[in-house]
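Final report, closing paragraph on structural work. Over the funding period we assembled a curated collection of sequence-structure pairs, and we close with a single example.
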Amino acid sequence: MELSILLAEQIIAMFLMMAVGYAVVKAGLFEAKDSKVISNVVVYICNPCVVIDSFQIQLTNETLWGLLLAMAVSVGVHVVLITGTKICSRIFHFNNIESASLIYTNCGYLVIPLVKSVLGEEWVLYTTAFILVQTVLLWTHGVRLIGQETELGIMKILQNPNVIAMIIGLLLFLTEFRLPTAIGSCISGFGDMISPASMLVIGMVIGDVNLAWVFRQKRPYLICLFRLIVFPVIAAGVFAFLGHLGLHPDIEYILMIVLLATAAPAAAMVTQVAQIYNKDSKYASVINVMSVIFCIVTMPFIVLLYEMLLYI
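Its predicted structure, as stored:
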């Protein structure tokens, strides 16, 4: 219960940061396109710094096993999301944009700042497991799904700044190499920027969107129902069961981190990939905006449900 309340408080704080971004665009102080610069800072500097910093912890059997466990569960989540979306599509006839929005979540922009603020920087390590799995799938399965691309995006995966940061961080972690104080402080400083910068970007993007028009669209409500409630509720039930198996001393929190990533809004990257392949990026952005706003309520609810099931 305490954790879900803390999470709700942090999401509200992040929503207020997002509101600042929305307000400065509406006030004419900035334009929505200005968010691209801040977005690049988050993607190419802040996010990689947080990832590298999260690996600057002591290598123990528990930590290594926890990381592998988080990765295995993340793979399982994506298998269920892909399979579940295909099954549900037979009934609801999801198009490619809708399917991608159901499968891929905004686990980087939103979950890393949340985990860092609520649980602490050392727990971000387990978030990287989900991000790595999703990044690989997004540039292979996701690109084929959205853009009908037949070639695997191996180079795009390897060139992804988060993947590069994970490789560097993992090498530092496995070799137990500690960064010099000056470099470590620099990396931590950029990492501390991720929460306000990420929310500012989202708010500025929303500032250029007609929210009244967004909420008049009917189909995205169905997508948000599955993305934010149906799939996360199933995950909460399965994770609560796994939590009772005692697979790891910190299994409760490791699974909760993966659950947060599973319950996150639709990935902003779906919109970006749709833009690259000249697909319906406007519809993708509508789903993204709507799911970001709704997650303020749904994510604390999912975590509360998980805690209740875990302690039954």
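The mean pLDDT is 87. The two ends are 13 Å apart (CA to CA). We thank the funder for supporting this effort.
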